[in-house]
Amino acid sequence: MKLDRDTIVNEALTLLDELGLDAVSTRQLAKRLGVEQPSLYWHFRNKASLLDAMAEAAIASHATAPLPTPSDDWRDWLAENSRSFRRALLAHRDGARLHAGTTPQGTDLSRALHKLQFLVSAGLPEHDARIAMLTTSHFTVGSVLEQQAEENDDSEGPGLDRAEAFEAGLALIVDGVANRPR
Predict the structure, then answer these.
(1) Which helix (H) or strand (E) holds 166?
(2) pTM for this prediction
(3) CA 143 vs CA 55, 66, 83, 140, 156: distances in Å
(4) What was the pLDDT predicted at 156?
(5) pLDDT for res 154
(6) Residue numbers of the chain with a pLDDT score lower than 50
(7) How far apart are CA 14 and CA 126, in angstroms?
(8) CA 43 to CA 106: how far, in whole Å?
(9) Which among 96, 10, 99, 14 has a CA at the least distance from the CA of 55?
């Protein structure tokens, strides 16, 4: 097996899905790849850079979703953008924990700026557009974080339908932005 960044990240995501974020270590990863631990540092300067690459790869389905177009309704787009982000986070065990605290870089930053400009072009003041994007992002990460924590907990949960709760909270956010005085 040729050891490259993609191979390492894919195996690390497999390890994440099997064991959870707390069990992902460079030692465990090197063992699974059949290499010595220092070999990983040729591709990633430290565990933090590996985790950043894993977080980026984990949300690739969201990061490559079509960007909004001028004909899109901003309310529908903002809600669907959040749903797409949620699906990407839920695709991996501890996906929300892995993603929490990351900031967009490179292409992801360009896409975020395009989305911001779309909301501004749709009539939202720039400050409101920024806060709307930040709020929906934080709400989505928090919602998935709670859901994944509950899924990994063996105790009896409150029986809350997480998808319905997410949709209800998302509607409150979008309606709040839409009804904000300008």
Answers:
(1) helix 162-178
(2) 0.91
(3) 17, 23, 11, 5, 18
(4) 54
(5) 58
(6) none
(7) 39
(8) 19
(9) 99
